[in-house]
């Protein structure tokens, strides 16, 4: 169609460059201390006293070289060797403490030989330091399984700290946990995944289990700086271990995020390997990238070490996401035994409110707003399901105290508990409305082709999006009523051969969170990039201008920034199902182009939107007004309607109609997500 191919090349190379540039507590405080000595494999036997041992070491090195053990898949996984853009193998691990050889991060052979030599070192004199066999138990275990070390020539060290650590964990099974999207914080907009290690000691109190996390720790910075740093690998990522109840409190209660636990089927040998390598990861740190080397990517690498038959990351492609890896894990034969859904505090409150009758809601909001005269209110109402109302009120006050700065308990909480204990249990049947688990989410990259008609003629359009999700995509397995896109680009070709770079959103972000008296969440929208603006054509004055002031519109590219905030309300027209939302936002708009008065136009703007999703369909009505008169430019009115039909999880058809002053267009397109 004659599209400017250099645009696509530019976007592709920019993303490749970003990917190649270079929270959480450390892994239980008792795990690591001391230094690992660096060696060069040439002439590194000077510390070995026995001639027999030196000869034995030479034999082992000969076996390593003969069988090229340093080139095996498991060794490269342990050291995280990957080929860079130049085809050279380089470890993704940045910390020098993870390597024995000075060349260990780029030379698998040197690192294996140096690792072997370190195993023959004497026990450290300092009791706070550990022997290399104990620093890297999986390396030692695996090399011993292949080389069959002679215990008369190589002393097998007792790793008491490592064994005690394993004893404390007493691992029964492992779960891969997905924390749903949290659009109020940049670090959580993509969702998050971590491991949960279920202990044999905590069968009846799993909140006392431990979790395994990988996260970036950027310190105190602005959300925009965090987003930029996360896209360019600007922060170190580290593994950490934490009590599971802390994540329940943070995700389930404070942030209102649902949790999905995927129980993994691993045998005893694989679970032991998991623990040995997890212990080793305490010495490693990595560059953290939101879209590639993130929590999901690193956790899967740990899982692949534990279960060598897995090849999950190889299937993930360039963009790696928590929800995408959950799908890949689920698709592995006989890997997921069970899926457990843990709704958030916020979800429980909404579910209870959805099943309440009008009289029960009136009672709930009276008590929620006043918090007084609980006993008299309960006595007044005979027909309401009091246990449902009071249980919801307890959850709401608990949520409110967690959200408040003081963290103080609601003053009526004690009385409410007392009154609740006096009530007989009632049978309240909640509808089975479990949301779609994350492995049902659509793929994140997108390409689309379409054809349309406009006031300026017919056109064909190509769209490409690196990631992630827009308002019209299916909400299954995703955060509903949200949008997060990177480098979403549109190119057009009009009849007659005129080409147009229609838009490129470097970052587009929207969260239309329903507002209610309990959660009180604001909605917001942010958009930065390039857009096509409708402007009047610059030409010399003509006599006809005295009688016809409106000039022919033309489309020109302009730098664009939109920031808005406001309120959204769920289900304003359709029952109790959470499938529709109305939002009203206000903010500022700023654009830059030589076609504007003084090269720019800016001013306040308002936007109204309505979205409704049912089955495989979703409809989006929108209206916007931008006041540019103060900057010497014409005001802008926009309105439109969009309709999406999902052919399947990753295939969509869309119809769009948009209108501005002196311009309108309609458009039909096919979207493929991958």
TrEMBL record:
Residues 68-144 form the DUF7843 domain. Signal peptide: none annotated. Residues 436-665 form the DUF7840 domain. It comes from the Bacteria. InterPro entries: DUF7840, DUF7843, Lnb_N. Residues 162-328 form the Lnb N-terminal periplasmic domain. This is DUF4105 domain-containing protein. It comes from Leptospira idonii.
């Amino acid at each position: 169609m004659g599209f400017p191919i250099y645009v696509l090349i530019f976007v592709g190379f920019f993303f490749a460059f970003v990917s190649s540039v270079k929270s959480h507590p450390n892994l239980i405080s008792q795990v690591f201390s001391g230094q690992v000595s660096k060696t060069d494999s040439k002439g590194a036997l000077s510390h070995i006293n026995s001639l027999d041992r030196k000869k034995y070491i030479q034999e082992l090195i000969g076996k390593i070289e003969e069988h090229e053990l340093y080139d095996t898949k498991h060794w490269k996984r342990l050291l995280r060797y990957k080929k860079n853009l130049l085809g050279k193998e380089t470890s993704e691990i940045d910390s020098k403490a993870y390597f024995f050889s000075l060349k260990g991060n780029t030379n698998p052979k040197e690192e294996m030989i140096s690792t072997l030599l370190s195993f023959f070192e004497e026990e450290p004199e300092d009791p706070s330091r550990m022997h290399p066999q104990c620093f890297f138990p999986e390396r030692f275990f695996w090399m011993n399984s292949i080389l069959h070390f002679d215990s008369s020539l190589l002393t097998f060290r007792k790793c008491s700290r490592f064994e005690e650590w394993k004893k404390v964990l007493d691992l029964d099974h492992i779960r891969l946990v997905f924390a749903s999207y949290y659009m109020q914080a940049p670090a959580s907009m993509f969702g998050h995944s971590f491991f949960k290690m279920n202990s044999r000691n905590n069968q009846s109190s799993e909140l006392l289990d431990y979790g395994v996390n990988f996260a970036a720790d950027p310190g105190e910075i602005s959300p925009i700086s965090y987003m930029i740093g996360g896209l360019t690998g600007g922060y170190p990522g580290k593994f950490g271990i934490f009590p599971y109840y802390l994540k329940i409190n943070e995700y389930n209660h404070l942030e209102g995020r649902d949790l999905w636990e995927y129980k993994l089927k691993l045998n005893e040998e694989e679970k032991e390997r998991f623990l040995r390598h997890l212990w080793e990861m305490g010495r490693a740190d990595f560059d953290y990238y939101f879209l590639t080397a993130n929590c999901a990517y690193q956790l899967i690498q740990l899982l692949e070490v534990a279960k060598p038959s897995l090849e999950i990351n190889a299937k993930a492609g360039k963009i790696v996401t928590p929800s995408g890896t959950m799908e890949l894990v689920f698709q592995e034969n006989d890997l997921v035994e069970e899926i457990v859904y843990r709704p958030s505090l916020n979800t429980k409150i909404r579910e209870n409110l959805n099943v309440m009758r009008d009289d029960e809601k009136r009672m709930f909001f009276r008590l929620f707003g006043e918090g007084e005269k609980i006993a008299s209110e309960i006595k007044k109402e005979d027909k309401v399901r009091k246990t449902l109302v009071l249980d919801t009120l307890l959850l709401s006050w608990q949520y409110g105290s967690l959200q408040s700065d003081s963290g103080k308990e609601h003053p009526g909480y004690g009385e409410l508990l007392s009154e609740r204990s006096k009530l007989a249990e009632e049978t309240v049947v909640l509808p089975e409305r479990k949301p779609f688990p994350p492995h049902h989410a659509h793929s994140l990259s997108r390409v689309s082709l379409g054809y349309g008609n406009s006031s300026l003629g017919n056109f064909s359009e190509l769209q490409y999006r690196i990631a992630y999700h827009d308002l019209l995509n299916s909400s299954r397995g995703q955060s509903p009523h949200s949008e997060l896109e990177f480098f979403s680009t549109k190119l057009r070709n009009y009849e007659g051969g005129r080409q147009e770079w229609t838009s490129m959103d470097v970052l587009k972000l929207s969260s239309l969170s329903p507002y209610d008296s309990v959660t009180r969440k604001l909605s917001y929208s942010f958009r930065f990039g390039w857009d096509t603006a409708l402007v009047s054509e610059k030409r010399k004055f003509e006599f006809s201008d005295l009688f016809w002031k409106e000039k022919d519109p033309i489309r020109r590219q302009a730098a664009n920034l939109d920031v808005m905030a406001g309120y959204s309300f769920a289900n304003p027209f359709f029952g109790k199902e959470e499938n529709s939302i109305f939002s009203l936002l206000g903010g500022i708009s700023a654009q830059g182009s030589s076609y504007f008065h003084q090269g720019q136009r800016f001013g306040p703007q308002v936007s109204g939107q309505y979205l409704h999703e049912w089955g495989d369909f979703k409809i989006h009505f929108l209206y916007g007004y931008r006041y540019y008169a103060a900057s010497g430019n014409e005001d802008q009115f926009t309105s439109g309607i969009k309709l999406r039909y999902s052919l399947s999880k990753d295939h969509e058809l869309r119809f769009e109609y948009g209108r501005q002053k002196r311009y309108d267009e309609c458009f039909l397109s096919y979207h493929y997500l991958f």
